[in-house]
Give the backbone structure.
Amino acid sequence: MSIDIAAKTLAVDAAMLRVVHAFRLAGIEPILLKGQSFAAWLYDPGTRSYSDVDLIVDPRREDDAGRVLQTLGYTPEPQRPGLPVHATTWIQPEWSVEVDLHIRLPLTTDASVCWRELSQHTESLRIGAETITVLDEAARSMHVVIHALHNSSKSISANTDLDRALAVVSDDVWKQAAYLAWRLGAKDAFAVCLALHPAGSQLCHRLAIAPPVPVPVPIRLLVEGRSSSGAAALHDLTQLTGLWSRLLFVGSKIFASKRYVRRSDPLAESAVPSLPLLYVRYWLRLARKAPGAIRAWRGMRP
């Protein structure tokens, strides 16, 4: 790990400890996801980097947690209207560390069920001078699979985490992980992702886990790397009911946040273009992607 990456990782841990301390003062006990909990579990010290903070809280305390983050100088990124979200990204420019505030894990179905189940699968991890609540090995194993599928097309580290977990976790723990995935409504995603890896496929055979046939559309989009192609957005649009919610969704895509437009354009990294120019380039990219997205979405439909 380079000095720059190590410094970034230390900054992330420091930001996480500040946030956890502030949450606890407000009577909120978060669970740390990924980050140091994955690093201490699967890697030699100082060899796994991470760039943001992932915390999950009781969904009944989400608004309270948001107010705590605001007192620390964080602001939330806008959310797409009409669709349930698993996390909200909070930004604090001074610290340059984002906090993803989760109320459920991606690909799970219900926030209250997710919290109830995960809060029964925790242990403690010492980070610096603090003791932090993290998921236990069964829940981490379930999460490492879900995370690998959800980030399959954009994160090498997510797949590396899964490869390492498949090498070290016992079948008894994987059985608990599979049961937890079922409890969270993520058994299809869990089975599909495992079956894609040679060691995971062997594990599926040993545990008698079978991927669904046919594979549900949202999972196929992730497996085939099309989650950002526009086909996923079309699928999301079809899941909404009512003209107003669909108009809001389309509007959120066309008039994306300034931060998103800047982050998605390579020109913004090499120059300081005007915001109107970035929006024009963004709309042109949407127009270019639309025909392929429509074809991909139609090809996914049963």
